[in-house]
Amino acid sequence: MKRKNYVIGTLVFLSLLLLSACGNTYSNNGNGPAEDVLSKEVYSRVVSTYDDVGDFYNSVSVVRITDEKYQSKYGAINTSGEVVIPTEYDDVRNCHEGRCIVRVGGLFSGKYGVVDATGKVIVAPTSNYSKIEDFENGLALVKDAKSNLYGYINLHGEVAIPLTYKDAYSFSEGLACVEVKANKYGYINEKGEVVIPTTFDVAKSFSEGLAVVKKAKKEMVIDKDGEIIYTLPKNQEFYGKEYHDGLIRVINDLDGDWWSDYDQKCGYLDTKGEVAISFIYDDADDFEDGIAYVEKNDRIFCINTKGKEVECDY
Q: How far is residue 163's CA from residue 166's CA, in Å, rounded to a whole number?
């Protein structure tokens, strides 16, 4: 069961502004659906030019053109409908911190690069990166196609933290989970310094000041000092890997054998590891804006952080 994200609410205009010489006035700080961001004239021109126009994100929208052989190419436009990234890439992702990740070639065999919101190439996709994640606090996770090792680049495309890790995650809350050697994970700061020793068999990104880790077959939660906050009993395991609205999903197996799922139920723990919402659901999603989708007895509905059934935000 996957929760879909929907745009909630409506735009309220306090006054109408005169259109500029370009005929373009955009709202919501350049974020949102193209029909809301672009003027009517520009929107009409854009949708007649491209086969798909994505939502605007930081004043840039990813667009797609598909030829008669059903081969697609991607680029991007600004809030005036002008091309900022030519439609010559096999993929373009939404810009983060003024940088868009682009790909040339297949999903698994292609090369990745970085282009800024004006179209300037920061890292050419002819480089040796087989993976580049979105920028977070000025750093982006990259993977070297030859060595398969991970590291981080800055907004200028320069290597900020050397590519020496067997596995790594993007930075979250100022820390990144990295694997120094086989099945030995820890955390580094944005200077590349190890701040939580690489002693864990499995580790996940920090969320709300906490992270899920595993050591000696025990699943636990730690804080940013590396201190263990709580450890799960043997008959429980994390279903969600991050905290949302102060809660994390957990599966409880009544007899602890894990061989069948008839006695496995989902619930939520708080940041101290105490049961906040009982293990009564057959399936459950992470909370988002105080609401989570759950399933019980073949019925899907929504609950709030108190476990009370509420109307879903379709």
A: 9
- Token couple for 61: 């929208």
pTM exceeds 0.70 for this model:
yes
**Is 50 buried (19+), middle (13-18) or exposed (0-12) by CB count in 10 A?**
buried
Tell me the two tokens of residue 14.
């306090």
> How many Cβ atoms from other residues are within 10 Å of residue 154's Cβ?
15
Cα separation, 199 vs 32, in Å, equals 43
pLDDT tens digits, the chain, 314 residues: what are they?
443 333 333 222 223 333 333 334 444 578 999 999 999 999 999 999 999 999 999 899 999 999 998 999 999 999 999 999 999 999 999 999 999 999 999 988 899 999 999 989 999 997 799 999 999 999 999 999 999 999 999 999 999 999 999 999 999 999 999 999 888 999 999 999 999 999 999 999 999 999 999 999 999 999 999 999 999 999 999 998 999 999 999 999 987 665 667 789 999 999 999 999 999 999 999 999 999 999 999 999 999 999 999 999 76
Q: Which CATH number is 90-165 given?
A: 2.40.10
Contact at 8 Å (CB) between 266 and 251?
yes
Alpha carbons 181 and 198: distance in angstroms, whole number: 9
Please, what sign has the CA dihedral across residues 188, 192, 195, 199? Answer: positive
Residues in Cβ contact with 122 at an 8 Å cutoff, skipping those fewer than 6 apart: 99, 113, 114, 115, 116, 155, 156, 157
Q: What is the DSSP letter of 307?
A: S
Hey, what are 266's tokens?
């989902």
Domain borders along the chain are 1-82, 90-165, 181-231, 233-314
DSSP three-state, residue 267: strand
Q: Is the dihedral of CA 110, 114, 118, 120 positive or negative?
A: negative
| Closest C-alpha to 219, from 227, 209, 228 | 228
The tokens for 40 are 């009517």
